[in-house]
Design a protein that fits this description.
DUF4350; DUF4350 domain-containing protein; 395 residues; membrane; 12% strand
Length: 395
């Protein structure tokens, strides 16, 4: 035992080699760096296999649409991805179903090209959450009718007809980092509307008001997939063109501003309203008379202030307030004449008035104290009595 202890002690106290410790730390850092580079390369290779973005047909991310596209391809549909307006318009003329993933990003020229191709060809349009301007150009009979800010389960009723797209219940609402809410729509005729306006069908056009019907994250909820696939024509293996508006599109070089989206008749009406408003303001200003310039500071006579204050009291029937003002002014003047300090009570003032008037203490208290005033006649009588009291003191 003593030998073992003697041998173990020098081993425990043996100093570590600084060079060996640095070498081990260097090897560990190199290994971590190699792992980080390998992970970055792996992620880059994996991302290179698909494009990441909303409704990207090859993206497996929650906001992509790879699930819907793979089901369409498995069913025999020819799915083509296009990012040019001219290509999408050509697909419409060929009779293909064209899904427009972001109609609100299209300019006037792009919307006009799609409208002409839709009218000239036999293709079908499927629009995802179009705004008012896109609907005015592509589907004038359909208009927005509100939003669904929260996830909601919507059922198909008996009036849906073909607009239900063979679905009984869907889940509509916002999708994380993709759409803050779902949009409801209405038609002028009231027909072709289903799921509380989230799905609307018109003449060779279908409007989907919720991103939940196409996004990987939510397409599997309820009958969302049935609505998406039937809207794109899976039942007849229709060829589908997946149109994603792109900033590199030659027709999208200049993004449309708000003035470009406004109707042409709005400018003359707006100018007419401005002119009418200016004429009305000018007429009202002349009606009030010219502006009077008065030097400052303005001096107002005491009589004018008194009369104005009295008129305010009379207009508001503030008899008690007027009586308090009269009594307070009289008490201040009497106290100054009789040598009574202002901070002293009413009793001190009444005591000072003894011998200067024939009125008793009770009469003086009723006259100078807070006795209610119920009528204009009583107020006039109070003013007269206060004046008479001051005259008695002046004798």
């Amino acid at each position: 035992m003593s030998g073992a202890t003697t041998l173990a002690r020098p081993i425990a106290q043996r100093p570590q080699d600084p060079a060996a410790s640095r070498a081990r730390r260097s090897r560990l850092l190199v290994a971590l760096l190699v792992l980080a580079v390998a992970a970055a390369v792996g992620i880059g290779v994996m991302r290179g296999a698909y494009r990441e973005g909303p409704f990207e047909p090859s993206s497996p991310t929650p906001t992509g649409s790879r699930a819907v596209v793979e089901v369409l391809q498995d069913a025999g549909s020819d799915v083509q991805v296009r990012r040019s307006t001219l290509d999408a318009a050509g697909a419409l003329e060929e009779g293909r179903t064209v899904l427009v993933t972001d109609p609100s990003a299209l300019g006037s020229a792009q919307l006009g090209s799609l409208h002409q191709a839709h009218a000239a060809g036999t293709g079908r349009l499927v629009l995802v959450r179009p705004d008012f301007f896109a609907l005015r150009a592509l589907a004038p009979g359909i208009a927005p009718a509100g939003i669904l800010p929260d996830s909601t389960e919507l059922s198909a009723d008996g009036s849906c007809g073909a607009a239900s797209l063979r679905a009984r219940m869907i889940t509509a609402g916002p999708v994380d980092s993709l759409a803050p809410a779902a949009t409801r729509y209405r038609t002028e005729s009231g027909s072709g509307v289903c799921f509380d306006g989230v799905v609307v069908q018109g003449d060779r056009i279908t409007v989907l008001g919720s991103a939940t019907l196409l996004a990987n994250e939510t397409v599997g909820e309820r009958d969302n997939a049935a609505v998406a696939l039937n809207a794109l024509g899976i039942d007849r293996s229709a060829p589908v063109t997946w149109y994603l508006p792109s900033a590199s599109d030659p027709m999208a070089e200049v993004r449309p501003g708000l003035l470009e989206r406004l109707p042409s008749w709005l400018l003359p009406i707006g100018l007419w309203i401005v002119l009418v408003s200016a004429a009305l303001l000018l007429a009202l200003s002349h009606r009030l008379g010219p502006v009077v310039v008065e030097p400052l500071p303005v001096r107002v006579r005491a009589r004018e202030l008194t009369l104005g204050r009295a008129a305010l009291f009379q207009r508001s029937s503030a008899r008690d307030r007027a009586a308090r003002s009269l009594r307070a002014a009289t008490a201040v003047r009497l106290a100054g004449r009789l040598g009574v300090r202002r901070e002293e009570s009413l009793d001190a003032l009444i005591a000072a008035l003894r011998g200067h008037t024939d009125a008793t203490d009770a009469q003086l208290r009723a006259l100078l104290g807070p006795t209610p005033i119920t009528s204009d006649a009583a107020l006039m009588r109070l003013a007269s009595d206060l004046t008479h009291l001051e005259k008695e003191i002046d004798r």
